[in-house]
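Sanity check

After download, print the first record. It should look like this:
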Amino acid sequence: MPLHSDLLEFSFPFPFVSNTKKTPVPIIALTEKNYATLSNKGDLSLLKAQGFKASAGQVIPLFSAQGGLKKIYVGISTPMGLYDLSAVAQKMKEIHAQAVFELSNIQEEDLETACIAWGLACHAQDRYKSKKDEKALPTLLFPQSVNKDKIKAYIRSICLIRDMINTPANDLGPQELADAAQTLAKDHGATIDIIDNQKTLAQEFPLVYTVGKASDRPPCLIDVRWGEENNPKITLVGKGVIFDTGGLNIKPTPYMKNMKKDMGGAAHVLGLANLIMSMHLPVRLRVIIPAVENSISGPAFRPGDIITSRKGLTIENTNTDAEGRLVLADGLTLASEEDTDLIIDCATLTGSARAALGPDVPPIFSNNTGIAQDLQDISFECQDHLWAMPLLSQYNKTIESPIADLVNSAGAPGDLIYSALFLQKFLNGTPDWIHVDMYAWNDKSKAGRPSGGSDTGVRALYAYLEKRFSSQN
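Expected structure tokens:
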């Protein structure tokens, strides 16, 4: 068991009440446009004196003559961003505010987003601190019209993703990742199969076995199923490399320090699965996670080794630090061995994706350009940006090997496209497929988004699935 088994409990903040005997403190949201028309001239003078411009996330509390918290003004963007209201909750937590707060001047369609932002700002990352944060969480009064179950599901899923990524590898190995998936499956009445027999893995998932065999914590393959059999089928595949040394092509120190996040793809598919199951989306869901540690020891695979995949394609290993696409390859083959309406894989896969689009916008690839465009459009609507990149068939020659079917790494530039083309080779047939290459990390803290493990794309993916599949029943 991990040193901190609370990870498996999926704890998350839920600082909300449906009613209160206290007089709520209003949180008044203003855009830069409607700030100038504020009717309370006294407040307007006070706000101007404090440099308030209604910029997104700008927070100004106003106090009574007796020193009590009277009201709070906050700037929001147009449309309102997910984290605009996080700044208020974070500030109230810092000043130990014991009040109950009430949202004011927010559009009806933005109320659920505001509540999610509030909950995320209250998420503490103090599991490893000997002195816990004992501050009472600022409490928000639920607006009457919101879907409380939806708010809870989003907060839980995003906190789960962040907590899992932030958990160091000494606490989260392949077995612990399987335990976490098992806990989630049990919570939702899903079934789970964990393949951890090493002979079985070597025979049936040779790429997963090859990458993980050098670790004293053996690899496994996690397979979760949920939902009614006659519903549309969605399969999620997540890269579960719990730590990546780079293998014998060892990473330099600056690139290895955050490699506990290399299971960010697995965290994302579990978080997405929690959303799907919590919201009872009418789909038949499958989640596949190859869980490995890319370590260094006598049995480690080597540059130049040729490995035969589950699909039968042979791969010349040109870089042991390109291991994520190897384990995903076996997972995608398994996913496409049965009829499915859509396969989505999530992975912290390439540095070139970050070079192309930065840390906050994961590139997506799909063999269906209509799906890619729909997903990109929806991601901008919900401000969880994804950007469609091309699967350029002329680059297939780049990943050919002179002595095997494929190489696993053709190097940069272009590795984000080469790796997507590599993964596509391991699909059986032509099922609709989306590949998300994510960073899964915040280098700097912002309101509601602390430094460390980050959710990128999960809200957009769920919004796409909800739009596409909820209308089918």
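If your output differs, re-run the checksum step. Summary of this record's structure: The mean pLDDT is 93.
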